[in-house]
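Weekly puzzle thread! Below is a chain. First person to post its structure in token form gets bragging rights.
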Amino acid sequence: MAMDRIISLQMSALLRKEMLETWRDRRALWMAICFSLLIPVMLAGTMVIVVKKQTEESTRLVLLGGDVAPLLEQRLRSDSLEVEALAEGEPRALLAGGYDLVLQLEEGFVDRYESFRAPKMYLYVDSSSTSAGRAERHLQERLGKLQQLVVSQRLTARGVAPQLLAPWQLQVRDVSTPSSRGALLLAMVPGLLILTLFVASLATSVDTSAGERERLSLEALLMQPVPGWQLVAAKMLAVASMGWLGSLLAIAALVALMPVMPLAELGIQQATTASGVITMGLLLLPLALLVAVVQILLALRSSSFKDAQTQLSILQIAPVMLLMVLDAARVDLADSYWQLVPLVAQQQWLKSLLVGDSVSLPLLLAGSMVCLLLVALSVAFGARALRRESLLGAT
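Winning reply:
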């Protein structure tokens, strides 16, 4: 009983010391806060800009020779396509003057059109312009519909049913739900939240391991009659608290900015609830512990403080790249066994909770237990590593 009390007092003292050093580091604290708030703000701003560009921007088209074909000009004009007919002009100069496209009618366009000889149109486009592709697709769509109308009118005028050229009609019916569309558009958000966790704990993990070794304060700690696992566990809890804070701030900021995001224009229904937000924070806690202990072990194995920063900077990019590769490869991550893999499991749970879908509680608990088991194994491995004399000699 007395031994248990001594161990608990030692652990409390260690944890208090690590927590004080962690939260007194203003540089690491501000780095965690700023990066955590930066991701949701950038995401919201990007969505607003994209939707505004799609809904408000219109295509400017110059119709050279269009004065002889006023009906063509009238049919092409729409709310999102501004058409200006000119008798003559230089296409290159017009494109440089702010127009997106130039459509030139060949000489004798009206005569060839009336004699059914398929007159030519020349479309001039500047492929180096960022809006050229969108504008060209828009015009092709308008011209395609107009061409179908002309063909139908010509066939009808000659007593031929237009249905003869269309043996069937294809109608596309979208059966997706707001949740499924939201899962597709918000697929990158879980990876960014996980990246926030890595970045928020980076500076603290390097300072509490490689930094203390270079300042020789780690040697003083190892000389104390304290088990190695307690030392690793205390440092892990301190680092994890910083990373978890970053992820919680990112989640809170993201949910707070959702009313500002144009989700309705994208066909997404905001379904994130308060219980979902709490669940997102809790399910990231085991991952925060795992990330913290792995960062500490890698920093201890590094040769210097700068080397530790380099290694951990690469580490924080690796999980996001892994998740992106899995998504790009269209791997079915919804199977039960994927819910037991750290990082992948948290990504899938966050993706479901962000769009209001439910998460299987048994799978969530099982995946979290696997993550905590890896944490325990890492702490034990770190305790053995602290007993090596070469650890303090790394420079």
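Puzzle host: Confirmed. Bonus trivia for everyone else. The CA atoms of residues 24 and 301 lie 25 Å apart.
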